[in-house]
Amino acid sequence: MNEIKLFSPATIANLSCGFDVLGVCLDNVGDEMIVRKSDVKGVRITKIVGADLPLETEKNVSGVAALALLDEMEADCGFEIEIYKKIKAGSGIGSSAASSAGAVFGINALLGNPFSAAALVKFAMQGEKLASGSAHADNVAPALLGGFTLVRSYDPLDIIRIESPPELYATVIHPQIELKTSDARSVLKQNISLKSAIAQWGNVGGLVAGLYTKDYDLIGRSLHDEIVEPIRSVLIPGFDRIKKTAKENGALGSGISGSGPSIFALSKGKETAEKVAGAMCKIYDEMKLPYEIHVSKINDNGIKVLALK
Amino acid sequence: MNEIKLFSPATIANLSCGFDVLGVCLDNVGDEMIVRKSDVKGVRITKIVGADLPLETEKNVSGVAALALLDEMEADCGFEIEIYKKIKAGSGIGSSAASSAGAVFGINALLGNPFSAAALVKFAMQGEKLASGSAHADNVAPALLGGFTLVRSYDPLDIIRIESPPELYATVIHPQIELKTSDARSVLKQNISLKSAIAQWGNVGGLVAGLYTKDYDLIGRSLHDEIVEPIRSVLIPGFDRIKKTAKENGALGSGISGSGPSIFALSKGKETAEKVAGAMCKIYDEMKLPYEIHVSKINDNGIKVLALK
User: Residue A139 gets which letter from DSSP?
Assistant: First the structure.
C-alpha cells in the first residue's frame, strides 16, 4: 500500500457543559486528504486546495502532527500530503484538528498501523498546538476515535470514548464572521465561582450518563453552560435568537461549537435536526448575515478510508 | 399495615471529584427505625436510642422531613417514629440523611407508596436543611435510591441513579474528632481557578463513565479532587498517610467522606477493601487516635424493609 485517500471529519468541541474536555465527531462535514509514500524521507505538503494555508511542513498543522509521529516511529520512506479543505478555518468545528488527525491517521495506515487510534491523539495534538498555542485534544480525539470523547485528564493523557445514541443528529450554523480562537480565549475569566463550577460538573456527569443510557432528554437537560457561554456568546451575532429558535423547533439543546463562531444544536432524529437548521437559517437570513449550515448524524467511527492504492 | 421497621443506610457524599453532586449508598452501616401509624394526627418522635438528639418534631431532622411529606399528602392518621442510631452524628457518612430518608420512606410505605423513591428526595432534603443549613441531596438521594446518585441540578431537582459495578466495596474510617459541617464549609473558597474546575469536570465525567462501563481502573483514576480535598484535608489528622496507605494496599482511590472527618476508599473486591481497612487502622493505632472502621459492599437498593406489621 502506497497511498491512502481519507475523509477527515469536522468535530464539535466543548458541547456546552464540557469546556475543554468533551467533543463529538460529525459524519458528512470534513476534509479529504491523500497521504502517499515517497522515496524522499521527511514530510512534504504537496497540495492544499480550498484554503490559503502554508505549504511549509513546520508551519502546517498536518506537517507538524506528521513529524511528531515520525519522531517516535522511524520510517524507511517519506510522506507526501495533499489536503482538500472543505472545513473553513476559524469556523469552530475543528478545521485544524481534521488536518492534524488526517495526517497521522494516513501515515499510521501506510506504516501498517503501529499505533492505535487512541495513541495517535498525542501526535495530532501537536498540530493543535501550532494552530492555537495549546495542545488541546477535544477536537482531534473525536476526529480519530469517532463518537463522543471525554478528555478525563491531560497529564497523563486519558481519553474516554463514548458511543453516540443512534438517533442523535447535529445541526451546525457558521456565521461568516471572523472570530479568532485566541480572542475567544482571551475573554474568559481565569477564576470562576465554586457554585457555577458545581452546576457545570453536575451537567458533565448528566451528559455522560445520558449518552450511556441513550436518554435523549437527559442529554438535552445537561447541555447547559453557565461559565463560558454567557461570556463568549456576545461575540456571536444573533446567538440568543438562534438558541431560542433551536429549542422551540425541538432541539435537545444548543451552544457554541468550540470557541465559535459556529453554533451547534443536538436533536433526536434527522427530521428535527433539519427543522432546527431551517429555523436557524431564517434568523440569519433576516439579519442578512451570510452563513453555512450543516446537518449531520453523529459519526461513531471517526476518519473514513475512501481509497487505498 | 400499621408499622414498618427499616434499615436506613449510611452514605458517602462528594466522592472526591463530585463535590455537592455525587453520593453512594453503603450496605451494612446504618440506623434502624420504626415508623407506625397513630390515631393522633401529626408526627411524634417517640424514642431515640444511641444518640442525644431532640425529640421535638420540628427540631429533629426526621420530624421535619416527615412534616414536609405530610404537607403535600394529607393523611387520615398520625405517625410515631422510633430511631435506633448507629451512625454517629458528625461522622461525615450521612447520619442526618439516614434519619430524614428513613422517616419519609417509612411514612410513604404506610400510606401505600403514593410517592416514588425519587419523589421522596425533596422531602428528605428538608431534614438536611435543618441539620446543616442547606437542603442538599447528595446523602439523602443515595440513601433513598441506592447505588450511586448524581444531582445533575438542584433547580429543577434532577437526580440520576447509577447502578454500582458489582465488585465495588467501600472502606470508611472515622477518626473520633469533632468536625462541624459548617466549619468544613467555611474553609472553602468561593472562587476557584477555571483550570482546576476543568480538571474536576473531566474527572466527574470519567467517574460516571467508569461506573456505566464497570471500568474499575477508570473509577480509580477519576477519584481525584484538587479543589476541596487540599483545603479540607488539613482538618483531618493523618489524612495524607491514610490516603497513601489506601493506595499502597490496592484501593482504587480515596478521599474525604462528605465534609469529613471520615475518610473513604473504594476497592475492587471485599478482600482488598478489608486489607485497606487494616492498613488504615494501623495508621490511627500508631497515632493513638480512636476511630471506627467500616467495610461495606455498595448497596444498590437503598433503605431496606426489615419487618412489616
Answer: T
| ipTM of the prediction | 0.96
Please identify which of the residues B11, B171, B181, B272 carries the catalytic annotation.
Answer: B181
Q: Which of B198, B212, B217, B231 to mutate to test the interface with A (most CBs of A within 10 A)?
A: B198
pLDDT digits (tens, 9 = 90+) for B91-142: 999 999 999 999 999 999 999 999 999 999 999 999 999 998 888 999 999 9
Chain A contacts of B208, Cβ < 8 Å? Answer: 205, 208-209, 212
Within 10 A of A32 (CB to CB), how many other CB atoms are there?
19
Of B158, B197, B213, the CB nearest to A200: B197
Model confidence band, residue B250 (pLDDT cutoffs 50, 70, 90): very high
CB nearest B152 (choices: A18, A160, A221): A221
The structural domains of chain A, ordered by start, are 3-163+299-308 (3.30.230.10), 168-297 (3.30.70.890)
In terms of CA atoms, which chain A residue is nearest residue B204?
A205
pLDDT digits (tens, 9 = 90+) for A247-274: 999 999 999 999 999 999 999 999 999 9
The Cα–Cα gap between B251 and B244 comes to 10
- The distance of A20 to chain B (nearest Cα, Å) reads 7
The model's pLDDT over B176-229, given as tens digits with 9 standing for 90+, comes to: 998 777 777 788 889 999 999 999 999 999 999 999 999 999 999 999 999 999
**B171 annotated active-site:** no
B107–chain A nearest CA distance, Å: 30
Cα–Cα distance, A216 to A197 (Å, whole number): 23
Residues of B with CB under 8 A from a CB of A: 17-22, 150-153, 158, 160, 162, 188-195, 197-209, 212-213, 218, 221-222, 227
- In A, minimum Cα distance to B199 occurs at A153
Q: Name the closest residue on chain A to residue B188, using Cα atoms.
A: A194
> Taking CB atoms and an 8 Å cutoff, what residues of chain B touch A195?
190
Q: Are B193 and A191 within 8 A, CB to CB?
A: yes
Q: How far apart are CA B106 and CA B112, in angstroms?
A: 10
Reported as a single tens digit per residue, the pLDDT across A111-160 is 999 999 999 999 999 999 999 888 899 999 999 999 999 999 999 999 99
What separation, in Å, do the N-terminal and C-terminal C-alpha atoms of chain A show?
A: 5
Region of A233 (left: φ > 0; alpha: ψ -120 to 50; beta: rest) is: alpha
Single out the residue of B52, B26, B60, B21 nearest to residue B158, CA to CA. B21
B152/A222 CB distance under 8 A: yes
Q: Which residue on chain B is closest to A199 by alpha carbon?
A: B153
d(CA A134, CA A269): 35
pLDDT tens figures, B9-46: 999 999 999 999 999 999 999 999 999 999 999 999 99
User: Terminus-to-terminus CA distance in chain B, angstroms?
Assistant: 5
pLDDT at A180: 75
